[in-house]
Amino acid sequence: MNRKLLTTAQLCESLQISRRSLERYRKKGMPFYLVGNKPRFKYEEILEWMRKQATSQTIEDVEDYIFQ
């Protein structure tokens, strides 16, 4: 993936997740940038953030995602 900023739709497609999941991740601290009033994402930063989240998650965190 190149270094350009991705839109919400582009990131959701790349990660194969829903917009709702992306919003939950943003609330949990996923890094993003505002361009005007639109969120944009650096793919490499998102992957690193997700790796860190995966290593620090507890069973309760996983259950939160499964049962929402």
Provide the gyration radius in Å. 12 Å
Strand content: 5-15%
Quickly count the domains: 1
Overall strand count: 3
Textual characterization of the structure:
- There is one protein chain.
- The longest helix is centred in the C-terminal third of the chain and has 14 residues, at 43-56.
- Helix content is 57%, strand content 15%.
- With 68 residues, the protein is an alpha+beta fold.
- The chain is globular, with a radius of gyration of 12 Å.
How do the helices and strands line up, and which of them pair or pack?
Elements: E1 5-6, H1 8-15, H2 19-27, E2 33-35, E3 38-42, H3 43-56, H4 59-66
Antiparallel strand pairs: 1-3, 2-3
Task: Characterize this entry briefly.
The protein is α+β, with helices and mostly antiparallel strands and 68 residues long. The protein contains four helices and three strands, in the order βααββαα.
Which key terms come to mind for this protein?
68 residues; 4 helices; 3-stranded antiparallel β-sheet; alpha+beta
